[in-house]
Specification:
Strand content: over 45%
Distance between the termini: 43 Å
Radius of gyration: 18 Å
CATH class: Mainly Beta
Number of helices: 1
Number of strands: 10
Structural class: alpha+beta
Length: 146
């Protein structure tokens, strides 16, 4: 019986926290979590990209995109943010190593599902001898609801 009550209390708390996140200041955050992309392409532009799909309860504005490199990053890269195949933002070049960069696109988003894709371009140096082999880390996007 205690387990059932604890489960019900946990579910109610989760529902209240979700509702308050939407009703509070109207700011939401979505993340890919930690990832690694192994490039199947040749050259410095890595294919495939990493994607992030999130759903908004109403219109909003993409206020920031934050990229944190993996600790094992050994090549300088620049990340491009794409929506519907078009570049909507570029993060600054990050050198090899553990680093974070952000960009503030101010991009309007519709209610419902949005998919962003992230593509990396490598630069010669470190472990990059002319071809980007992999990249990774964590992408976080922040949205302000209108």
């Amino acid at each position: 019986m205690r387990r059932v009550l604890a489960l019900i209390a946990s579910l109610c708390l989760a529902a209240v926290l979700t509702a308050s996140a939407l009703a509070g200041d109207g700011r939401l955050s979505f993340t890919t979590g930690n990832f690694v992309v192994t490039c199947t392409s040749t050259g410095q532009f890595c294919k495939p990209g990493k994607k992030l799909t999130f759903t908004l309860p109403r219109r909003g504005t993409l206020t920031s995109v934050i990229y944190t490199t993996a600790k094992t990053h050994c090549s300088a890269i620049r990340v491009f943010v794409l929506r519907n195949g078009s570049t909507v933002a570029k993060l600054p070049r990050l050198d090899a190593g553990d680093a974070t960069a952000s960009v503030h696109p101010g991009l309007g988003l519709h209610k419902g599902a949005t998919t962003l894709r992230f593509r990396a371009k490598g630069f010669t140096g470190g472990c990059n001898a002319g071809q980007l082999g992999s990249w990774g880390g964590k992408m976080t996007v922040k949205v302000r609801l209108d």
